[in-house]
Structure of Sarcosine oxidase subunit beta:
Amino acid sequence: MTHFSAFSLLKNALSANENWRPQWPAAEPKAEYDVVIVGAGGHGLGCAYYLAKEHGITKVAVIDKGWLGGGNTGRNTTIIRSNYLYDESARLYDHAVDLWEGLAQELNYNIMYSRRGVLMLAHTVHDVQSFQRHIHANRLNGVDNRWLTAAEAKAYCPPLNISPTARYPVMGAALQERAGTARHDAVAWGYARAASARGVDIIQNCPVTAIRRGPDGAVVGVDTAKGFIKAKKVAVSAAGNTSVVMGTADVRLPLESYPLQALVSEPVKPCFPCVVMSNTVHAYISQSNKGELVIGSGTDQYTSYSQRGGLALIEHTVAAIVEMFPVFSRMRMLRMWGGIVDVTPDRSAILGKTPVKGLYVNCGWGTGGFKATPGAAHVLAHTVARDEPHPINAPFTLERFTTGRLIDEAAAAAVAH
Ligand code: FAD
Ligand code: PYC
């Protein structure tokens, strides 16, 4: 693997950039692995990387039905933050933010992590109370978050319209300065390259059709489009398709899969310094390094596996964006797309062991799992390697839906998300 450095950039520039080696080889499945990971998104690839690096487990295959990063990892709007209400969530997402900060150096790959700050706008008295509660809870957990008045929010984000007569008047905002964005594809590519360099096989265009269990009920491997692959352990990290994959092992999960859409504008010069989210109107916006405004909305109202959403929702989102940022009213939109997000009843992830020996699951990230990528991957690797949860993911069990020990971020946010 070529090490990226000023020297290697210069050397390759002198040969017209024609001598770069492939970043990872295309692998064909072997007959057997210690661990098979279903899903080559950021979470699955990251898990493979940490299994190899921190636990010395390198007989690992990451298998994807399509191209790596082609699921939600490559479709998301890249917002990273850790301002969740509950202690369990704060620990998990802040662990991820800690890892994001050093990830480019760790992977020797420019993942373009940008600490540009995330502003969450309050438009109602209820929003004000809810965000202030979040701020207090976050600060008790050592997570940075502070309250801004409407004028302070405008000073932080000059294009924001704070007219009190607006349809969605801004009554203030919660600001997490440590939050920001990263380049989504680069996260998948960086983990893939680093995992492959440690011996992991990355197998693309190979759907896993079933998880196979032996006579004692334990996992014995996976059936795939390229034949059966024996495995001592299987970890499923298949986002919106998780319930389908896990169903083949007779494990039922409390998941619903919904389309979630986003869109980008034509590129313009840098004009938008941070990320702004408005949960109440289901619209959020940032500017990519290419200059496009990256805009997203809430989930569609119906379950689907179609990877595209309805136009009505996007129309509503764009109308809200134009009210909050009238300066963008003449921008042209370039393209829109959708991903399938896996939503749990309490809007928190399921990350850990399952009732089936040797089978692990990482799902239920819904609309918000990109920010968790390094943290989730790190604790999933720990769980798979040791067959016991890391203290950070210990509360994120499947059993909580029978014991009632929920981590109810849905109720905490008081918006559908
Ligand atoms: P994925 O990247 O989806 O990877 C799962 C992989 O499993 C896929 O590549 C898929 O092809 C593969 N797979 C599925 N079934 C099979 C099978 N049978 N066999 C083999 N492979 C299979 N989160 C944030 O934190 N911030 C955001 O701003 C944000 N914005 C979003 C905007 C949109 C439009 C969408 C759709 C999501 C957004 N999210 C956001 C959520 C985030 O993208 C996901 O939670 C996260 O990327 C999930 O990562 P993953 O690696 O688990 O899943
Ligand atoms: O979780 O911050 C988030 C998010 C923003 C857009 C989609 N998810």
